[in-house]
Automatic annotation (TrEMBL):
Domain of life: Eukaryota
GO MF: RNA binding
Gene Ontology process terms (BP): RNA modification
Chain positions of PPR repeats: 180-210, 211-245, 273-303, 375-409
UniProt xrefs under Gene3D superfamilies: Tetratricopeptide repeat domain
Pfam families to which the protein is assigned, alphabetical: E_motif, PPR, PPR_2
Keyword annotations from UniProtKB, A to Z: Repeat
Location of the region described as Disordered in the Swiss-Prot/TrEMBL record: 764-791
Record InterPro entries: E_motif, PPR_At4g14850-like_plant, PPR_rpt, TPR-like_helical_dom_sf
Protein name as it appears in the record: Uncharacterized protein
PANTHER family, per the entry: PENTACOTRIPEPTIDE-REPEAT REGION OF PRORP DOMAIN-CONTAINING PROTEIN, PENTATRICOPEPTIDE REPEAT-CONTAINING PROTEIN
Length: 791
């Protein structure tokens, strides 16, 4: 008998050791098989430990297996065992199952709940917002006599606080004979969450020992109210700030647009975790600073060992979409697939939105179809993606499919639908869907009115637009008025355009596009005095044209170039290279060898200005020069030298005299460059044709006989015209060469080229070239210096 007891004890200890070491689903299933083979499944303590361990592994399938094991338990009313199963359901967010199990145990067995039972059930009810079950639970707590238990009462306060029923929470709190920091914090969190900051502050001031959780609850409450000053003062009072405190303040500043203060706090954080990085990256994206979001994301990748999660992906993808950084977006998608984050619905939605905004609409559609679960935001991303890419009919078809799948559209959905109608010119369809919003219990917002104004304005329904603006329940903003203004200008309605300009100038006095549009309209009507008056008004209001910029992606880095800005690292080298290349292409510059010697001398001067202490510094400087040239110099290709070649050059450069080092450097650069001849006529044609084609297309659109040209998108018209011009140059050269086979094959001089190019000029006599992309309008001024002289 003693040997039998010892054998059971040793098996029990062995099973407990195995459960402590188990960290996978398969290992737990093997342990269960071990328990069955050795008849250990009748041991209540081991069974409880097994259920608790399984609940921490989280897979739903494992919890279901655990429930089947629990249903075959030998003892039906063991409180400890039943609590473990209730908590297992609760920890895996199966709140309904946990409460249903509790009811069955009370009805079918002699199970006697204790404080741990009600604590777990109160938490489940609070998380599931199960108000009726929570009230039932409170009644049973009073009936059993556990209402004075500190932990049970605290869980009830927290439950009612999550329900937002602060009167009930306050009653439970006032009846408590003993309180703790947790109970005080639960009540304060409830008041702060429901917006009752006066009551929250009152209890916070009365709290005997304030901990970081109470401070965080108060800070979060003031942040939601927009009172960042009070939130910051509480933050400064905290003696023990944790990551939650710092991240809460950073998120608050980002949410209210104070990105500078958010970044200052982020930089001052003593220890950052992934949540902090996500908050700052998301803050930059929300405040339309995609460049900064991208820099911070790349900094997190290079300076920390943190692995991105779904929140990181959702935060960075909007910034990537705004910049059109498609290569970086593809890299993020690969990481998402490797980590299997694409199964998360909002991550899949963010990928669909990114590809759609970058113009990869077919890729976006494939990702949408691959999503295991969809939500309304997923449909919205695809509908808006098709709409902004000019596929209005496809967007409307997807909208109908969305309704067939029983997804309820929201305000964002109808923005995409109205935009699709706008792109397709479906005026009646747009009106119908605008009126149909009431049937979906949606109130049109100012964005929907803006879409309708643009739709009707493009169709020439100016009187309807005027009535719609007067009838809408919002004050017309600058975007709506500008859209109406450009519609009036397009259809030549001077009276309405003049009235609209007076209104929009009060909202956006510095936007030059509005003035230029009306000034060009006056010029077309030959009202020169009114045009000059608009020009004086522009000077009075200091209306300046917004500086244009271009963004390129090179080796995963985003480079932005703004007109006239000289703040980049290699600005001088880029400008010098462009200047010399232009002179060379125009036939006025130096020979290739002379230009190369001159350029290398300037580059070497910048090279020696760097503090080169060792071979690593030398190698980085050399590679930086080659990478810069390969990404900026046209008509040249630099062969990046190998590590051995750079090392040999460093040795010879270091051992040489100071006056000889420049020649060694220039010769090394020459050895690794291949120059290609530049075809002057081809380059000039490629540079001049796109703007000339745009001007010609705009002029043709105003001619009634050529209205069909408006149906051709600019993205097709301009490249086609450029290719046609280049082919024409090539054919002309061949014809000329054939007729003059005996003559010297020399290219025409600069004057001849200029005269040839000068044939295709922009429209004169006050014509205007305008481009409209979505709701953004850009008016280019093509006015003569003054009114024409009288004949």
């Amino acid at each position: 008998m003693r040997e039998q007891v010892w054998r059971w004890s040793s098996l029990e200890r062995k099973c407990l050791d195995l459960l402590q070491q188990a960290n996978t689903t398969s290992s737990l299933l093997q342990i269960h098989a071990f328990m069955l083979r050795n008849s250990l499944d009748t041991n209540v303590n081991l069974l409880t430990k097994f259920i608790t361990t399984c609940s921490h592994q989280n897979p739903i399938a494992l919890v279901r297996h655990t429930r089947r094991v629990f249903d075959r338990r030998p003892n039906n009313d063991d409180t400890f065992l039943c609590n473990s199963m209730i908590r297992a359901h609760m920890e895996n967010r199966q709140f309904g199952e946990s409460f249903t199990l509790y009811r069955n145990l009370r009805q079918e067995t002699e199970f006697e709940p204790d404080g741990f039972t009600f604590t777990a059930l109160a938490k489940a009810c609070g998380l599931d917002m199960a108000i009726w079950e929570g009230q039932e639970l409170h009644c049973q707590v009073v009936k059993i006599g556990l209402s004075l238990d500190l932990y049970v009462s605290t869980s009830l306060v927290d439950m009612y606080a999550k329900f937002g029923r602060m009167i009930c929470a306050r009653k439970v709190f006032d009846k408590m004979t003993h309180t703790s920091q947790v109970s005080w914090t639960a009540l304060i969190c409830g008041y702060a969450r429901s917006g009752g900051m006066s009551n929250a502050r009152s209890f916070f001031d009365r709290m005997p020992d304030k901990d970081s959780a109470a401070f965080n609850a108060m800070i979060d409450g003031y942040v939601k109210l927009g009172d960042m000053g009070t939130a910051r003062s509480l933050f400064d009072e905290m003696m023990d700030r944790n990551v939650v405190s710092w991240t809460g303040m950073i998120s608050g500043y980002c949410h209210h647009g104070d990105i500078h203060s958010a970044r200052s706090l982020f930089d001052a954080m003593p220890k950052k975790n992934l949540i902090s990085w996500n908050a700052m990256i998301g803050g930059y994206s929300q405040n339309n600073q995609p460049h900064e979001a991208l820099k911070l994301f790349q900094g997190m990748q290079s300076t920390t060992s943190l692995e991105l999660d779904g929140v990181t992906v959702v935060s960075i993808l909007p910034a990537i979409a705004d910049l059109g950084a498609l290569d970086l977006g593809r890299w993020v998608e690969k990481v998402v697939r490797r980590k299997k984050l694409d199964r998360i619905t909002n991550v899949g939605t963010a990928l669909v939105d990114m590809y759609a905004k970058c113009g990869e609409i077919e890729k976006a559609k494939r990702l949408f179809d691959e999503m295991p679960e969809k939500e309304t935001a997923s449909w919205n991303a695809l509908i808006n993606g098709f709409a902004v890419n000019g596929h209005g009919e496809e967007a409307l078809e997807i909208f109908l499919d969305m309704q067939k799948e029983n997804f309820m559209p929201n305000n964002i959905t109808f923005i995409g639908v109205l935009s699709a109608c706008n792109h397709c010119g479906l005026v009646e369809e747009g009106k119908r869907w605008f009126k149909a919003m009431e049937g979906f219990r949606l109130v049109p917002q100012i964005e929907h009115y803006g879409c309708m104004v643009d739709l009707l304005g493009r169709a020439g329904c100016l009187e309807e637009v005027e009535k719609l603006i007067e009838a809408m329940p919002y004050d017309a903003n600058a975007i709506i008025l500008s859209s109406f203004l450009f519609a009036c200008g397009h259809y030549g309605d001077v009276t309405r355009a003049n009235e609209v300009l007076k209104k929009v100038a009060k909202l956006e006095p510095g936007n030059d596009g509005n003035y230029v549009m009306l000034r060009n309209l006056y010029a077309r009507k030959r009202r020169w005095s009114d045009a000059e008056e608009i020009k004086r008004l522009m000077r009075k209001n200091q209306a300046n044209k917004e500086i244009g910029c271009s963004v390129i992606e090179v080796d995963g880095r985003i480079e932005e170039f703004a007109a006239g800005h000289r703040v980049r690292t290699h600005t001088e080298a880029i400008h010098l290279t462009l200047q010399q290349s232009w002179k060379h292409m125009m036939g006025e510059g130096l020979r290739s060898s002379q230009m190369l010697n001159f350029l290398m001398g300037k580059v070497y001067q910048q090279f020696i200005d760097k503090d080169i202490q060792n071979f690593e510094d030398f190698q980085l400087a050399i590679l930086d020069i080659f990478n810069t040239f390969n990404s900026s110099l046209p008509g040249k290709h630099y062969n990046v030298p190998s590590h051995k070649e750079i090392e040999a050059m460093f040795i010879s450069w270091k051992n040489a005299k100071v006056q000889d080092r420049r020649d060694i450097f220039i010769q090394f650069m020459k050895d690794n460059v291949r120059l290609s001849k530049v075809d002057n006529a081809t380059v000039i044609t490629g540079v001049v044709t796109p703007p000339v084609a745009m001007a010609a297309k705009r002029a043709g659109e105003s001619v009634p006989q050529l209205k069909m040209i408006k149906a051709i998108p600019d993205v097709f018209f301009v490249p086609s015209a450029t290719v046609l011009a280049l082919v024409s140059v090539k054919i002309s050269r061949r014809i000329f060469t054939g007729k003059n086979a005996s003559s010297t094959h020399s290219e025409p001089d600069i004057q001849t080229k200029t005269e040839t190019i000068g044939v295709a000029r922009a429209p004169q006599g006050g014509a205007a070239a305008s481009s409209v992309i979505g709701n953004h309008h850009e008016e280019r001024e093509i006015l003569p210096e003054g009114p024409p002289a009288a004949s």
